[in-house]
Design goal:
The structure is a single chain. Helix 1 packs antiparallel against helix 4. Helices cover 18% and strands 23% of the residues. By secondary structure, it is α/β, with parallel strands linked by helices. It folds into 2 domains: 157 residues, no CATH class; 159 residues, Leucine-rich repeat, LRR (right-handed beta-alpha superhelix) (Alpha-Beta Horseshoe).
Length: 354
């Protein structure tokens, strides 16, 4: 299938005929109880769903795929090649065998037993891209698991009503252009991924501590200068990316993020460049050092910092035995510290100044 995701809408390509589906997309993939409740909803509202076997391995190499296809066999309506699917609908499809099944409570139960979220429907662990179809063959629920794209062919009003009924569904809605409403919904539905970008914020609200399940947090706000203590109360956080014009520094509280695996910081960043705007010279940036507490992030796999006034690295980095990527680029570091050569477990090091 061919998809594009722009400003909360997912469009399914129909070749020269334009697009046949405009859907409300999800901020994050529903999981756990939200996934199960949504499966029940989809089974009730549609009569068919489809899964894809990419056919790139033998059956004994894709045991999960074989098991699911066997379990669902009693509900099979038809199977089609990529070419047959394209001839039926005119949409673009990728290589594979497409299996179309009847929606029944029992087939829905299998979908709930085999996965905990829609991203689990990812080849070769399971058949690919669970989708639910309307009577005309278009998508009522669509997924492209390897790209983390999920959406439904419903209106904004219908999506809002579903969110009210099913905690854990976090759609991209027009109202999320207002940051406070976006954060309200993110907290209510306990999202595990949050992207804060282009809201023209000058500070991160203390309420962010209420995101008790968030694993990935991306912040692209050029006027954010200070990281609040509440940010370091996110004990479940595994990935943190910050893009801004400058930072006063990384607080010592970062040591509390015991699950953090990836830390990425880009200074000199702007999402709304005005005429005459230029990033500060590196020598004038406030972000000019890493705290020694960063050595307590024992799960850290990737440390990536670009455009800073950092002149030296703390020797405590040597304690990070899970670190595989160390990149501190476009900084004021003049030579590689001796301790870095002792970190033989590193797979890639980039300390280039430009």
């Amino acid at each position: 299938m061919r998809w594009s995701d722009t400003e909360g809408l997912i469009e399914r390509g129909m070749g020269e005929g334009g697009y046949d589906v405009i859907a409300v997309s999800f901020h994050t993939d529903p999981r756990g109880a939200a996934y199960e409740h949504l499966i029940d909803e989809l089974i009730e509202k549609t009569d068919r769903f489809l899964l894809v076997d990419r056919g790139r391995y033998d059956d004994d190499e894709v045991l999960g795929v074989s098991r699911v296809l066997q379990r669902l066999k009693p509900y099979l309506i038809e199977s089609c090649t990529m070419e047959e699917m394209m001839m039926q609908s005119g949409a673009m499809y990728s290589e594979g065998i497409y299996y179309i099944y009847r929606c029944t409570p029992k087939s829905g139960q299998i979908l709930k037993e085999e996965a905990n979220r829609f991203h689990d429907w990812l080849y070769p662990s399971l058949p690919d891209d669970l989708c639910f179809l309307k009577e005309d063959g278009s998508d009522y629920f669509l997924s492209v698991a390897h790209e983390n794209i999920y959406g439904m062919g419903i209106t904004q009003e219908e999506a809002s009503e579903l969110m009210e009924r099913i905690p854990g569904l976090f759609f991209r809605l027009d109202r999320h252009r207002e940051f406070e409403r976006y954060l309200d919904d993110a907290i209510r539905h306990q999202t595990d991924v949050l992207q804060i970008s282009s809201y023209h914020l000058t500070e991160i609200p203390e309420r962010i501590r209420e995101l008790t399940h968030v694993k990935k947090l991306e912040i692209f706000e050029q006027n954010i200068f200070r990281l609040p203590p509440a940010l370091f109360e996110l004990k479940t956080l595994e990935e943190l990316e910050i893009m801004t014009a400058d930072l006063e520094g990384i607080p010592k509280g970062i040591s509390q993020l015991k699950q953090l695996q990836r830390l990425t910081i880009y200074c000199g960043s702007s999402h709304h460049v005005v005429p005459g705007w230029r990033p500060k010279p590196k020598s004038e940036l406030c972000f000019d050092y890493l705290p020694e507490e960063i050595g307590e992030l024992t799960e850290l796999v990737s440390l990536n910092i670009s455009y800073s006034g950092i002149r030296e690295l703390p020797p405590e980095l040597e304690k990070l035995e899970n670190l595989r990527y160390l990149g501190v680029t476009n900084s004021l570091i003049e030579e590689t510290p001796e301790f870095v050569s002792r970190m033989t477990w590193l797979q890639h090091v980039d300390l280039s100044c430009t």
